[in-house]
Every structure is written in C-alpha cells, then in structure tokens.
Design brief:
two-stranded antiparallel sheet, mainly beta, 9 helices
Length: 441
C-alpha cells in the first residue's frame, strides 16, 4: 500500500522511518525540554557538545535591566535596557594541539534606555547596571592567554578590559550600579573601562603559593575607544598614555573542611595621561571662581580592594549558602570628581523550601564626591554663585529576589532606595522598583 493510499484511508503505516529520521528523533529525545534545559537554545543537535569536546565553548546570554521610579525626577516612568553577550573561548590544546593556551573573542550589544537619564534623576551612579557606552555592537574581548610552568604563570595579550583582570567581583545579583563591581572603573570611567569597551593590553599572572597570586598589567589609555563609531576599532590613534595596574590576590579556604572559600584582592593603578586638575587653576585657586585655565596634572592614580567570602556553606542542593561581597575603590583627589566607592552585598540561597537555587540579595553602596569638589561648591554658595547644596555622598540600597524560573531563566524583582541623590542633602530620597531578567542562550 502506498503512502498516499495510507493517508487517504486513515491507516497507519507500520514500516520503520528512514534511518536519518530515526537519528534526528533520537537526538531530539535526548534533549531536555524547555523548562529543564540549562541553555534556551539547547545543544544545537549535539553540535555544542561536539565542539566542547574539541575545545570550543560558546556562551551567550541576554540580560534586561528595567526600573520604575515611584518618586524623584521630572515624572514617574518605566525604562528598560538590554545587553546581548556572545562569546567563543577556545582551548588551544584540544583544538590545535597548543597546550596551555586559551583564545577568546566576545561581542556585545547594548539596547534600550536609561531611567535615570530620561526622567532626570541626576544621580552619581545609574540604577541599571548594563546601560551605557552606547547602544551599539562592540568587540569587547579579543585576546590570547598562554600558561607556563604547570599553570603557575599566565601571560595574556590582546583587546582586554581593566575590569576583567583587576578588581573584578560578581555583579549578576544586583541591578543598582552602586553595588556592582569592579568599583574602580565606575568612579573613573573616563579612562578605566569595564565591558563592553576594550583596549590593547597585556597581563601577567604569577602564582606565588597555591593561595597567593599577583597580577601585573599594562593597558592602553585611549578615549577614542569610547566613541560610538569605534565599536570595532583596533587602532591606537588617540592614545593618551598607558595604565599600569597591579593586584595581589589571596584565595584561602576556611572552615573545618575547607568548605568556605574566599577571594581577597588589593591593588592599584597609575594612568600616565595628562589631564586638568579637577578644581584648581594655574595659580592654585578655585578655577570655578577665577575662570582662569585649570592646572595640569601628569597622571591619574587610585587603589582598590575586593572581598568575596562564603560565610555559610550551602547544602548539596545549593540551599542555605550565605556569601558576602565587598568592593572599595579610591581615586586621587587631583584629577577625579568622585573620590571613592564602597559596597557590601549579602546573598543567601534557598530561602524557601523547594527553591534551593533561588537567592535573596541585599546590598548597600556609597559613592563619595572628591572633598575638594565639595569645598569649591561651598565656596560658590558663599559667593552667591550656587543655590543647590554641595555634593557629598550618595547612598544606594537594594533588596531583590532571584527566582530561577528555569535553569536558563532567572527573574529578579527588587526594590531600590537612593539617599541624597546626586550627593545632595537638599534632595528628597528616591524609591524605585526594579527587575532583572537573565536568559542563558
């Protein structure tokens, strides 16, 4: 009986499907369903696994940060910003026989709008972690790293970011930039860059003991890389100097069974670029009062410290774990309007029965203006040239809950509170609702 006759009569064919159909069906049957799979796009019919076995790992995710201001600004409104992250990492030993090597390329695209900008919140730090650096595609990583001496020495070069290699701490559990690390590049964003902006650079990582590492790096200081028409710029025109960075890292394990790992970092940087003094003129007086040319400075400097410490070890299912994250950065007074940033974040997993992978996160962060800037604003007030209060410290607080909708999707609603917006004591506090969506693709 032909297939056409079978179809016409409503009969069911008992013959086996062709071999290619069987293979496809078997592959589909082994794939977890949408609500169970760790990646929304799945294993690509087994291609991802085969590539991983050959040393090539693809990572992709889309993050959405959205917020609504209940008060503050010119009006209450809702805004959302998104970020698409696409990355390929190659283990060159598996892929090409070059042992100890790793190659990575990352593309990023940012979309959407800033709530703080659109409703005039006038803050020192944004309320959406992923907004900024232009709504464009950027080449965010293009580097090669080679390990020597059984991994004790690692040398990395290419298009890198300061925030990846120095002062990095987890950022995925918060929406508020007051809390998101690394702190250094968020108070000196004009020359220290985080993703998605990259620059040419090199980094040497040396293991001194099993728990102690030192990182040393030199990165191009080039403001051209910030331009929205330079998302894939690979030149060096426009470079103003070099950033010399260093960091000492300690990774101990506490507890009777070493079940409480920690990471402790302290470091600093020097940027050799020339720039204006932030407040003084060529005679050492306040430029805002004299109107003379600013004094010139030959460098930018700063220090940072970071802590990530497991305080309570999680159960085998991931619940009951408590982690603290701390960030601190202090910039020089001569060249930077913001002096420091500090934050403490606590995150606890499995607050509710049956929700072992969920977390509740609470954080407090503060950004302080350069005291010299505050002094000159006080002088302007005394001279009748300024009516607003001088800027001092802005404090941000966030409480959120990370609901693991599926292994690939996390929904994180939260509430934010901003005290002294813009660092000004004469402004009313601001309350916002926020939500972060993470889609692992």
């Amino acid at each position: 009986m032909t297939a056409a006759l079978l179809a016409a009569s409503g009969a069911t064919a008992q013959t086996a499907p062709p071999p290619q159909a069987t293979t496809a069906q078997a592959a589909a049957a082994t794939q977890p369903g949408l609500w169970e799979r760790p990646l929304l796009t799945g294993d690509w019919g087994g291609l991802r696994t085969r590539l991983k076995d050959r040393g090539v790992v693809f990572t992709a995710n889309e993050v959405v940060d959205a917020g609504y201001n209940f008060d503050g600004g010119t009006r209450s409104d809702f805004r959302a910003a998104g970020q698409l992250y696409l990355s390929a990492a190659v283990d060159t030993g598996k892929a090409w026989g070059l042992e100890g090597g790793k190659f990575q390329v990352t593309l990023m695209n940012r979309q959407g709008n800033s709530l703080a900008n659109d409703v005039g919140l006038n803050l020192l730090q944004p309320v959406q972690t992923i907004y900024g650096r232009g709504t464009i595609w950027r080449l965010s990583n293009l580097w090669y790293e080679q390990s020597f001496n059984d991994g004790a020495t690692q040398f990395k070069f290419g298009r890198v970011t300061h925030g990846d290699d120095f002062g990095a701490t987890p950022c995925g559990n918060v929406n508020l930039l007051h809390l998101c690390g690394p702190a250094s590049s968020q108070i000196v964003s004009g020359y220290l860059y985080n993703l998605p902006v990259s620059s040419w650079g090199v980094r040497l990582r040396q293991r001194i003991t099993p728990e102690v590492h030192v990182n040393l790096g030199v990165i191009e200081s080039n403001p051209v890389n910030l331009r929205e028409d330079r998302g894939f710029y690979l030149g060096t025109d426009g470079a103003t100097g070099a950033i010399y960075a260093g960091e000492l890292q300690w990774t101990p394990k506490f507890g009777a069974n070493n079940e409480l790992p920690g990471t402790y970092k302290i470091g600093g940087w020097i940027d050799t670029s020339d720039s204006n003094n932030v407040v003084f003129d060529v005679n050492g007086d306040y430029q805002a009062l004299t109107g003379l040319a600013f004094a010139r400075e030959e460098r930018h400097t700063g220090i940072h410290a970071n802590v990530v410490q497991q305080l309570i070890a999680p159960e085998t299912d991931g619940s009951g774990g408590l982690t603290v994250v701390g960030n601190l950065a202090v910039a020089d007074q001569a060249t930077n309007r913001m002096r420091s940033k500090a934050a403490v974040i606590l995150s606890y997993t499995g607050l509710f029965p049956g929700r072992a992978k969920d977390d509740v996160t609470f954080g407090v962060g503060a950004v302080s203006m350069n005291g010299r800037v505050t002094d000159v604003q006080d002088a302007q007030i005394a001279a009748g040239l300024r009516t607003e209060a001088a800027q001092e410290t802005e404090v941000g607080v966030e409480l959120n809950y990370g609901y693991r909708l599926t292994p690939a999707i996390t929904v994180r609603p939260g509430i934010q509170f901003i005290h002294n917006p813009g660092g000004r004591s004469d402004r009313e506090d601001i309350t916002l609702g926020s939500i972060k969506l993470v889609f692992n693709l």
